Every structure is written in structure tokens, then in C-alpha cells.
Amino acid sequence: MRVLAIGAHPDDLELQCAGTLAKYALRGDHVTMAVAMSGDCGSATLPKREIAAIRGEEARASAAVLAAEFLVMRDYSDGFLFSTEQTRLDFLNVVRQARPDVILTHSPNDYHPDHRMTAQIVCDVRIMITVPNIKTEAPPCETLPEIYFFDTMAGVDFVPQHYVDISSTFDMKKQMLACHKSQSSWLQDQYNMTYLDFIDCVGRFRGLQCGVPYAECFQVSPTWPKRAKGILLP
């Protein structure tokens, strides 16, 4: 199976679905990690271009933990992702490059506008990926992928429909997040949190809900048409 995860910022996928991506990778599925934003506002001390370059390398290092393919949209500036013809074409091209059976992305009701817009654009372009007259660098796909929304930050206003037991891959999730060294002080200063404390708390809470040590959770997009054969999470 081919799996595409699309996150707004360079560490979003690691926070919300890295354990699930690791399970896909370990069972032999093809995993692609794509990031829309440059991460250029992720520092209180470094200029935009410098922190964006650092965060891009951190994201690539994280994807390498899974031997996952890594794709960048167009390095959109943090906080300013909008649905335009160009953004739709960029997202569409990434989906066509990855040719996924399943897409994991943000929930449409998450706290950050970039997260919400990423979810919106992913859902908007899904029906376009098989249309030949919508031209992108990558050719049209033959089939439509299923879309799953991963958890919101801290699980706020998110009712899970599916749980994935990530107990066996939680250490890989931590290893991937450890690649994002530039964000340690930023998260502490801005949100009074650390990566490891955050994912441990949320992972245990979601695990408690489904009876395992650690879990990640998802909702399936209600978009039509559905695939004849359902795409199962690992």
C-alpha cells in the first residue's frame, strides 16, 4: 500500500501520526511525508530564512528514520496558507507524485489556521487527482485515495473513530521528534511544553481509551466517492 501524510509544519506529522507511519513502514508499505509550510516562524531568535533551512533539514532527518520519501510543497510562510489556484495545484501535484491509497492529514477543526487550511485543501483536491485536464508536473492518478484526519493538538474537540496501537513504535516516534532539535526551546517558551511530555501524555490518554499502552487516533473523511474496498489503518 502507498501512504501519504501531509502536515502543515515540519514537526506536525511526527507529533500526530509518526507511530502509525512507522507501523506502515515496518510492514513494507511505501510511506511519503509531505510538508506544506517552511517553518520560518519557529524561532524567537533566528531570521526566517535561517530557521526555515534548519527545520527543512530536521524534517528530512526525521523522514529518514522510516526511510520515507520526503516532499515539500512550496515552502509557504507560516501562518499564511490560503486556498488559491496555486496552492491547490501544489497540493495536487504532491498527491499525484505520491500516488497514495490513503492520505493522513490534519483535522479540519484544529487550533491552527495552517492546520485547518491544509485539511481543507487536501479534501478539495482529492476529487481532482484523476482529472486529466487539470495539469500538473505529475500525471493524473488512476484511483482516489481515502483520507483520514489525525488527532487535533491535545485532542481538543476530536472524537476518535479509529485507534492505532503504537506501543511497539512509540520509541520510533520519539526518535523522529528528537530530530527537530530547533523546536525544543520554542515549544517551551510558547506553549510551556516539551515534545516528549506532550506525546507521552496524549499517547497514554488515547491508549487508555482503547486498552493499550500508547495509541494514535483518526477520523475518516466523509468525502464521496468511497473506495470499493476500504483502506484499513495498520
Number of alpha- plus pi-helical segments: 7
- Largest sheet properties: 7 strands, mixed
Task: Assign the CATH topology.
Answer: Rossmann fold
What's the Cα radius of gyration?
Answer: 17 Å
Basic shape: globular
Estimated structural class: alpha/beta
User: Can you tell me the CATH architecture?
Assistant: 3-Layer(aba) Sandwich
Q: What is the terminal-to-terminal distance?
A: 11 Å
Report low-confidence residues grouped into runs of 5 or more.
none
SSE pattern, N- to C-terminal: EHEHEHEHEEHHHE
Helix content: 40-55%
Largest beta sheet: what is the strand line-up? 3-2-1-4-5-7-6
The whole-number mean of residue pLDDT values reads 93
Describe the 3D structure.
This protein has 234 residues and is of the alpha/beta class. It has a single domain, classed as LmbE-like (Rossmann fold, 3-Layer(aba) Sandwich), CATH 3.40.50.10320. The protein is built from seven helices and seven strands; from the N terminus they run E-H-E-H-E-H-E-H-E-E-H-H-H-E. The protein has helices spanning 12-26, 48-65, 85-98, 113-126, 170-178, 183-191, 195-210; strands at residues 2-7, 30-37, 69-76, 102-105, 146-150, 162-165, 215-220. It has a seven-stranded mixed sheet with strand order 3-2-1-4-5-7-6, with helices on both faces. Helix 1 (12-26) links the parallel strand 1 and strand 2 (30-37). Helix 3 crosses helix 4. The longest helix has 18 residues, at 48-65. The radius of gyration is 17 Å and the shape is globular. The N and C termini lie close together (11 Å).
